[in-house]
Amino acid sequence: MLTSEHSNSTGDLPPELAGGTAWTRFWFTPTDVAGLHWLRFLAGVLFIYWLLPLGGDVDGLFGADGWFSRDAFKETRALRRTEDDPGVALTTWSVLFACGENSTMLHVVYWSAIGIFGLFALGIATRVTGVLTWVMVGSFLLNPAGSFDADFLLVIPALYLMLGYLFLGQWSRNLTPLERILGLRGTSVFSLLSARDEPAPPSYAAGLAIRLLQVHFAFVVVTSVLHKLQMGAWWSGVAFWYALSPPGTAREVLESRAMSDSFLVLISFAQYVVLAWQLGFPLFAWRGGLWRIVLLGGAVVGWIGSAGLFGLPVFGPLYLLCCLSYLTAAEWGRITDVLSSLGGWVQAQVPERAAKSVKQPASTHVTRR
């Protein structure tokens, strides 16, 4: 069983924190590392899912002479400079700047980023690949020609996962010199799914990294809904109508008016539900029980809606990933146990089917004379 025996109650805290305030317990309660490992795996897969489709035109999207060239960057920086803040710029750093006009180097950096995301997802040298993942995610958000507005949120999980693995086990365990450089061993998904007699000890670094991700994402959700409430389309309930209705002439709009009344009521209701979910997000995100259905169900519905209505393929999975960060150690433990049982069942079926195929008599062929 991988289910953690450590909860967030004060009875499980060390003596130096047991008498602390609720604020101290919220931030500095150690937690099972399984949640951090699963979030890392899902984040690595998400980063590959985001960047890999852009490999068809690396030079055009990220090159110095691409769709958004070096001259475009200079002009954009000049437009954004003001007298009050002359240092404002579109992008301040990226490893892609070092590639210059060298297409070969640019392709090497691109495919290296894909490989780094894969290694980080698998849990290989997490202390190094975590830092490189954060650098690569920030670097490839360089060019607006290949980025949606929601893509910039990818930096949030990349940052806090990097911090979590930088300090994971740094002081609480006796690490070898190689582990202090590359990171802990046994952090892969395969290690999580394999049966272990004793679960890994709870970690302060994992707890703090997940808390930072949770709080940051809650601020993002509330800020986004407050931004929506400043626009009349969201107050009047027609924001989804613009996304669902293709542009047409005034006559076409009037002809579709008769059939749009009930449909407009439906999408207006859905829109207000979205606003209520986002506005009340901090009230139910940390709650258990049936509130988990509201949390994760809303994230799944948002995934479908953002992809279907607005054509944002990354926004939905990113939302779901951040919502999964609110699961407790016990909930991650139950999920891991279910996946481990499922994996064991699949492994048991393979030799069983192989044995049946061996016992099956060979077919005979009758030759007619």
Could you describe the 3D structure shown?
The protein has helices at 15-18, 22-28, 34-51, 58-62, 70-80, 103-122, 126-140, 155-167, 177-182, 189-193, 204-228, 232-236, 239-244, 250-255, 257-279, 281-284, 291-309, 315-324, 329-359. It has 369 residues and is mainly alpha-helical. The protein has a domain at 29-218. Helix 3 packs across helix 8 and helix 6 (103-122) packs across helix 7 (126-140). The protein is globular and about 75 Å long.
Task: Provide the fold topology.
Layout lengths: L14 H4 L3 H7 L5 H18 L6 H5 L7 H11 L22 H20 L3 H15 L14 H13 L9 H6 L6 H5 L10 H25 L3 H5 L2 H6 L5 H6 L1 H23 L1 H4 L6 H19 L5 H10 L4 H31 L10
Structural class: mainly alpha
Query: What's the count of strands?
Result: 0
Mean pLDDT: 79
Radius of gyration: 25 Å
What general form does the structure show? globular
- Return the string of H and E elements: HHHHHHHHHHHHHHHHHHH
Strand content: under 5%
- CA distance, first residue to last residue: 65 Å
Which stretches of 5+ consecutive residues score pLDDT under 50?
1-13, 83-90, 362-369
Largest sheet: none
Number of helices: 19
Helical residue percent band = 55-70%
Oligomer: single chain
